[in-house]
Amino acid sequence: MPTRNNPLTGILEIISADITTLDTDAIVNAANVQLRPGGGVCGAIHGAAGPELALACQPLAPCPAGEARITPGFGLRARYVIHTVGPVWQGGTNNEAEMLAACYRNSITLAQNNNLNSIAFPAISTGIFGYPEDQAAGIAIATIADMAARFDAMPQIYLCCFSPSMRSYLEEALHKACKGTN
User: Where is the Macro domain (predicted)?
Assistant: First the structure.
């Protein structure tokens, strides 16, 4: 459970939902480098947003792993889509952890720079990019906690889980992070 000294108190919520249906200022798209419609979360977001999203992404590509771009949400309930490209898992020896952390940092920074009050993340890189869910969960929680400890103003952050296993890993990582603040 979060404690008073925990920087995540009041700003982080783990939810199970279809990210394309969320009424937040922004949702994060686990994108590909060319920011084109793809499979998984990316395909679902592009499908729900409509063809305007792909057109808005064209001039913003390429987007290297770890970086982020922002577009309007078009047909989504979310006002904006923040596109970030997670690393492809290569065994953990190719700077994957730092690139994944950069996805969260750069996406939150874009939200802050655009005065957004809420942002929802999928489990970046855990789908076809193959990042192990337990490791990805730990990186997500640690990165968000680090940013929350350094900044006075943070958007409300939702970690949106599609699978029960990812939710379990995120809850475990959050519990460990909270124990470390006591």
Answer: 1-178
